[in-house]
Amino acid sequence: MNSLELFLAHALRLEEDSAIRYDEMADALSVHRKSDVARLFRKMAHYSRLHLADAERRAAGLEIPRLKAWEYQWPGDDSPENAPIEDSDYAMNDRDALLLALKGENGAYAFYSSVAAKSSDPGIAETAMEFAAEEQGHVALLEDWLKRTPDTGPDLDLDPPAEVG
Amino acid sequence: MDHHVLSLAMTGSGGAGVMTVGQILVDAAARAGWYGLMRRSLGPQIRGGESAALMRFGHRPILSHGDSFDLLLAYDWGNINRFAAELPLRPDSVVLFDPDAGDVPEVIERTDARCVAAPLSAMAKTEKGVRANMVGLGLVATALGLTPEDLTEEMTKALGDKGEEILASSLAGLKMGAELAADLPAGVFPNGGRPTPAAKPRWSITGNEAAGLGAIRGGIRFVAAYPITPSTEILEWLAPNLAEVGGQLVQVEDELASVNMLVGASFGGVPSLTATSGPGLSLMLEGLGLSVSAEVPLTLIDVQRGGPSTGIPTKSEQSDFNIAVYGMHGDAPHIVCAPTSIPDCLSTVQWAVASAEAAQCPAIVLSDQYMGQSRAIVDEPAAGGPVANRRIAAPEDGAAYKRYALTNDGVSPMSVPGVKGGEYTADGLAHNERGTPSTQASDHQSQLDKRERKLDILDCDEIWAETAGEGPIAVIAFGSLTEAAREAVERAHGDARLIGVRVILPLQPELMAEALKGVSKVLVVEQNHGGQFAKFLKGHYALPATVESLHRPGPLPIRPTEILAAITALKGDAR
Amino acid sequence: MNDLSHPEVDFTDYKSDVSPVWCPGCGDYAVLSAITKALAELALPRENVALISGIGCSSRIAAYTSVYGFHGIHGRALPIAQGLKLARPDTTVLCAGGDGDGFSIGGNHFLHACRRNLDLTYIVMDNAVYGMTKGQASPTSAADWTHSKLTPEGPGVPPFQPLDIALAAGASHVVRCFSGKVQALTKAIAEAIQHPGFSFIQVISPCVTYRPEMRDLKHVVHESFTEPCTDRREARRRLIDDDGFSLGTLFKSVEPSYKPCHQNTKTAAELERQFAL
Questions:
Q1: What is the Cα–Cα distance from C151 to C146, expressed in whole angstroms?
Q2: CA B349/CA C277 separation, integer angstroms
Q3: Buried-state track C211-228, b at ≥16 Cβ within 10 A, e below 16
């Protein structure tokens, strides 16, 4: 990342993608009587939107490059804060959901801190550091929450979709 | 009133050229001023095999197959037992046969018709290159007052690309035939005299060609085609002609593809049509249901043949009535109509296209092999007629477009790709007004209601049926039997009236009640084994207590005389 | 350079307000995201795009976008899409559905759509199972997949080979993607839309409900088709060693499309003269 504008382009995309992903998961789980899990994902989407608004404020007045959807330099296959789709499951319990969100937040934290560490531009490093700190806050919050959430084991489903496994 | 001046059958197996000879005769006769009709009876062979050209000529338009043949010209007797039943003869009929083709078979002798040897092959052999079929043509043409010269133009048209030598020897053959006619014993040969020259322009057209033209006139500009007997000629006629008017025809992999391609093209706003026969219609039913649910108009012409399954592909039947009316699963209001004659294929298909487009639903046109593959000389049809005029949406900015809006008349203005603000997803799933899938009872009910309601917008008063006569017995028919029924009703001298139903769905209870005023008994005539049309009429219309059903499967057409007999029997019935 | 906070075209504009019926964890969410992002990248006006689908879980996708859509009947998405494209060549046509819809009930249409090579993009979300009917073997299920009540001993026939068949039938742009690699999928869809011919994209898209083992596919797929072949024979040779999880553009070549003849030189009245005596 050789410019603040390019970094912010990534941050904007990351946060918007993440908010959309959490919302999708919340929608999908709310039809499976998982209102607690859905609420958690809504909350995570909300945090991402707050963070997006913050990135937008910082981008105001700057010439943010317009990257094509496949031009973002992510460390992995997907936007780094996106909770992995395939880890979501209709039978997931609160603890599973927290672990899933933790993956997303950790991904964002890893991305921002890596940019901060690698960037030679102090301005970029500073901003990335602040973003990383925010994500770290989310991680800590989720870890704390996780400690207070007992593992209830696999959710009992009396009407499974099919005999699978 | 004479219904015809001459009815003539020509038979001959592969190579006899019966169809070409028949076509030359009909066209030459038409040019001289005769009206005429030519049907085809073909065997199952890919090429060759038994074939018969079945013709009828007269001083007024002839659209019915009639009762029997005055004259049979047999080039040979190949497989005659298979189709002799399609060639009814009377004791006063004349059979001209080529003695070189063997003795007159028993099945013909048994008719007591007068058999006269005509040495066609022997005469042909007297001059190099002359063929028996032209000798025969020259012979029978004299019965219509046509000389070899009268036949030359049409013969040149038919054979012109075969070279000078062939033309010259063919003309020689025609002359030999005319000489042979002069040599025949007096009184055996029918003499129809000369025709009256036509006062108004006439056309020579088959039902399948007329159907294709009706499609173009109605505004069809996309056709997906999969060949199937006996509808293929519609598609083959449309391929070049549709392109000429800027439309397109695409040959596809199967009937499932053709009906669904129509759905796609029509979704894009282009009026679309296909033609098929029973097996194809069976395959297309699911797509037709999609057309109903998604409210995407399309027109399907079913040229019926013997069924079920592969049935008798080359022979006519009216046994797809039930599948056309009841075939789709679910409650699926749609249009079903049937042309009543060869020229009527034009106007009925045109009406079907315009109606499908107006009501945004599928229209099935029930033609049949008799009409589709027969050629008639008819007065030039009137120009004009209804054209596709779909109600297109003009979405308002900001307001969510409701593709399936519950309008008063049930027709919802349709948006098409390219219209901004009109984006929607068409769906075969039950849906709400916006098209979003819905399992809600109220959405299902209201959408079913609107699809039923919208068919009321169709104006059927003029077209719904072909009626004639005022007698107390109503003969109700549809499709190609309408004209046979008309002939019977005319011969019944006031005892009967004709109701040839053209619009089968939507039902027309008021028009039917009006047509049945003063009727005490009903005779339903149809070409199928189960009496499908009669059961439909009894189930859906208020008919008098006495309803007789005259029905028979193909391939033997129900003749006017049989209908007349049924009328007479019904008249004497004290019920 | 644009202000990204107010992009000219936002991919979310291509999403409808209808919530997917898909299960949590379904790979199809990623495909929906990729399609909308690809459309946004190409800045195609919504009214000029149509997404046609058949029946099945993935076919629900048509209603989840805000372009013109058609959620048709099982197996017939391609005929509807081709009818639309032929009638309205000005429309960008996408067709989408599942492996059962495209390779089983609609298999014949797949072959002939490849042959016709019309300019459209066909995206098959392949999860090797019939999800909507609750977990039966599909044409791409392994012969010994024993987890369906319908075929407790496995379907017993080798799986359908979508890429081989597309190549053999004449598709001019053949790609395999994985729903877990959204960026690559987005790029592939955008390229497919721009390719002037029939583009086929097999997207391995896990069904975590009926095939939970598919969650691990991200460790199985591998980028192998790094550069597209432009020679069909060479592309076929590449498939000899394919394990079914090689990703990338296998083949891409600009080849003739079926073109109907339009002349538009006569009126209907002029045509009618052929019948006059």
A1: 7
A2: 23
A3: bbebbebbeebeeebeeb
**Which is nearest to C10 in space by CA: C41, C56, C33, C31?**
C41
Q: How far apart are CA B195 and CA B57, in angstroms?
A: 10
Tell me how close the Cα of C112 comes to any Cα of chain B, in angstroms: 7
Number of H helices, E strands in chain B: 19, 21
Euclidean distance between CA atoms C73 and C88, whole angstroms: 21
Partners of A163 on chain C (C-beta within 8 Å) are 147, 149
Residue corresponding to tokens 């074939």: B51
Alpha carbon of C15: minimum distance to chain B alpha carbons (Å): 12
**pLDDT at A92 (0 to 100):** 87
Whether B131 and B173 have beta carbons less than 8 Å apart is answered as yes
**Nearest-CA neighbor of B101 among B82, B83, B81, B119?**
B119
CB proximity list for C89: less than 8 A, separation 6 or greater: C119
Q: What is each CA distance from B223 to B109, B255, B276, C18, in whole angstroms?
A: 49, 12, 12, 34
pLDDT digits (tens, 9 = 90+) for C32-78: 999 999 999 999 999 999 999 999 999 999 999 999 999 999 999 99
Chains A and B make contact, 3+ CB pairs within 8 Å: no
CA distance linking residue A137 with residue A51, whole number of Å: 12
Domain boundaries, chain B: 6-183, 204-379, 391-458, 465-572
Q: Is residue B532 over pLDDT 70? A: yes
Mutual orientation of helices A94-118 and A35-59 as an angle, nearest 10°? 20
Query: pTM for the full model?
Result: 0.95
Question: What is the DSSP-derived secondary structure letter of residue C33?
Answer: H
**H/E element, B83:** helix B80-83
The single residue listed with the structure tokens 């033209």 is B213
Q: Does C259 lie at the interface with B, CB-CB under 8 angstroms?
A: no
Asked if residue C1 belongs to a domain, the reply is no
Superfamily of B204-379 according to CATH = Thiamin diphosphate (ThDP)-binding fold, Pyr/PP domains (3.40.50.970)
Angstrom CA distances, A116 to A14, A137, C260, stand at 16, 17, 59
Three-state DSSP class for residue C143: coil
Q: Which amino acid is at C97?
A: G
- For the record, the structure tokens of C90 come out as 């000005």
CA distance A141 to chain C (A): 24
How does pLDDT run across B405-417, given as a tens digit for each residue?
A: 999 999 999 999 9
- Say which CATH topology domain B465-572 has: Rossmann fold (3.40.50)
Q: Return the number of CB contacts < 8 Å for A and C.
A: 121
Judging contacts by C-beta atoms under 8 Å, the chain B residues touching residue C265 are 244
Please answer yes or no on whether A65 and C1 come within 8 Å at the CB atom: yes
H-run or E-run covering A100: helix A94-118
How far off is chain A from C152, nearest CA to CA, in Å?
11
Domains in chain C, number: 1
DSSP annotation of C275 reads: G
Of C148, C186, C212, the CB nearest to A165: C212
What are the Cα distances from residue C108, in Å, to C30, C121, C139?
Answer: 28, 17, 13
Backbone angles phi, psi at B56, to 5 degrees: -145, 130
The pLDDT of residue B421: 95
For residue C147, give its domain range. Answer: 11-275
Query: What ipTM goes with this model?
Result: 0.96
Sheet harboring B114-117: ordered strands across?
B114-117, B89-97, B69-74, B6-13, B50-58, B35-42, B375-379, B202-206
Out of A56, A89, A162, the one facing C135 most closely (by C-beta) is A162
**Residues in chain B within 8 Å Cβ distance of C20:** none
Q: What is the dotted CATH code of the domain comprising B6-183?
A: 3.40.920.10
C7, A66: Cβ pair inside 8 Å?
yes
Provide the residue type at B186 as one letter.
A
